[in-house]
Amino acid sequence: MTGPTYRRDPPYGRPEAVAPGVRRILARNPGPMTFEGTNSYVVGEGAVAVIDPGPEDAGHRAALLAALAPGERVAAIVVTHPHLDHSAGAAALAVATGAPVLAYGPAGVGRSATMARLAAAGLTGGEGSDTGFRPDLVLEDGDGVDLGGGSLVALHTPGHMGAHLALAYGDVLFSGDLAMGWASSLVSPPDGDMAAYMASLERLARGRWAAMLPGHGPVVEDPAGRLAALIAHRRGREAEVLAALETPGDAGALARRIYRDTAPALLPAAERNVLAHLIDLWERGLVAAEGEPGPATRFRRR
């Protein structure tokens, strides 16, 4: 099992043109879940938007401001979802620029009724959630943000998080953490929801995109192919979960059966993905749970 390929000298803090009217500035926060770091994007000309200002880091904030051309101003700060590596830098950037912060909402909104009920019953797993995040303005599905040179259109795409947005800029798709080229996404209940994740991937797959710009990793130049591959990957993983349930077990036991070549440091994330599949299968009546679904719950095939 091969891992992602890192660049020898990632261009931290340096603007890169990655699509017409789009500059990417890479935050210096690499890690197993963030790859080389968070991608922040400056979109438009004159009156621009900053998509995902990244972690709270003075150096990254200075790099975002330095990426502006003479006479440009930040008209909006748009957050795809309230995880600390995407949203924590929004408040200080808003103070520095006077721009409002736009998002679908704070952490916890946008959950399905099932996930809301499981969360109320005590299910946790919102690793990295920015619980203090509050947008100045709420972007609903289909809302637009006018910029110099075009507009962004919000697409509510829950799955990685209930409050997750993708953003369309003409035929360029900003996919946040829902779809990336270097890895599949973490789906960790109750913030993550496998049924919603699959529906969001299928929604995006119906679009005609020239490029996909994710929250981490390189530009995806074949969005249709990548989205189809992610859908197929998850369907294949579901089949593996069902096969592993020939012997009943909890999410951890099943993950160890399925993710045999995964590094130990990534097994906790694998367990959360398996739990997300199990809850989805339980909702669909394909598996039974010995009690309320959670990490320690034993599941079996019906």
UniProtKB/TrEMBL annotation:
Record domain Metallo-beta-lactamase: where: 37-216
Tell me what this protein is called: MBL fold metallo-hydrolase
InterPro entries per UniProt: LACTB2_WH, Metallo-B-lactamas, RibonucZ/Hydroxyglut_hydro, Sec-metab_biosynth-thioest, WH-like_DNA-bd_sf
Under SUPFAM superfamilies, the record lists: Metallo-hydrolase/oxidoreductase
Please give the organism. Answer: Neotabrizicola shimadae
Spell out the CDD domains in the cross-references.
Answer: metallo-hydrolase-like_MBL-fold (cd16278)
